[in-house]
Design brief:
Layout: H1 4-9, H2 17-27, H3 36-39, H4 47-60, H5 69-73, H6 84-92, H7 96-112, H8 116-128, H9 137-147
Helix pairs in contact: 2-4, 4-6, 7-8, 7-9, 8-9
């Protein structure tokens, strides 16, 4: 396989479709230790790559992506970001008990950082997955208050 960083850059939606498709196919075969590069949002996996990165993560599937769940929670810092809806689809296929600790950890971070956008995204995720009855009530109420979710 080519250098993984070059392949991830080929996920960029401004590249030709055949280049994107080839990169997506190649990345489905990456080593588990490299999956993190698809989940992290940074200068390598930047906004123009996120939608395709999410599609690759969906194809890789659970449980292979379990070690990067906490990174995927960061995608909810803005629910309008490319790939967020695909991440929700991935989470729908995962047992709520496997997701809960990552959601609660991200919730605590959003509250600590006073990040109302992230809190809003996490509330949206919790509601989309119908997890309101499973998440810690105090934590959920703090998220609701910070996010001003209606």
């Amino acid at each position: 396989m080519d250098n993984i960083f070059n392949i991830i850059r080929d996920l960029d939606w401004s590249k030709p479709e055949d280049v994107q498709k080839k990169a997506m196919e190649q990345l489905q075969e990456i080593d588990d230790r490299d999956i993190i590069y698809l989940a992290q949002q940074n200068e390598l996996n930047y906004k123009y790559c996120w939608h395709n990165a999410a599609l690759v993560l969906k194809a890789i599937g659970y449980p292979r992506i379990k070690p990067v769940l906490s990174y995927l929670m960061e995608w909810f810092q803005d629910v309008n970001w490319p790939g967020v809806r695909t991440i929700v689809e991935i989470f729908r296929a995962i047992s709520p008990t496997d997701l809960l600790s990552s959601i609660e950890d991200a919730s605590k971070r959003s509250i600590k950082e006073n990040d109302d956008f992230w809190a809003f995204g996490l509330v949206s995720l919790i509601k989309d997955l119908e997890l309101e009855h499973l998440i810690n009530k105090d934590l959920y109420n703090q998220l609701l208050q910070l996010s001003e979710y209606e």
